[in-house]
Amino acid sequence: MKNVSSRHPYSAFRLSALALALGAGCIFPASAEQTDTSLPPESAPHNITFSTSIATRHFRPSPEHNNTQHLLNLEWNYRDNTVVGAAYFKNSYRQPTSLVYWGKKYHPFDASPNTYVKVVGGLIHGYKDEYQDKIPLNKYGTAPVILPAVGYCYKQLCTEVIVFGAAGAMWTGGVRF
Description:
mainly beta
């Protein structure tokens, strides 16, 4: 029987990173008080979220599509619901891809304040060679993106469903600390 880490070299790393982040989330509570009084509360970081991909589905599946992205995402969440983040993953064609983004979270449901809608925009880099035209406005392997998401957090644990254009959706899970 093959070792799981030999079939998926990033699996062991991803599981270790998630375990480390979960441990950090338990040690450093998300509701810790701000200690630097020189920053205005609305611009001071509220928390940091580390997340990884759980599942990906393409709306029009193809045998060449990768549904295991090995996502590593780090996102700064500010008190005014602004988010800034960076991610590394394998794109739909198994190419190493990075994303930097900025956006906003909205909490539209008074009855469920932990549920949110998020819209981010940024630059994605990594769709190259024969796959360069698979995303719009891609020049030199870099393109602008807009990514909507719906999420929910329970204490330090968060999950999101992110829609990537007309191509598909990704389910993520993570921890904030």
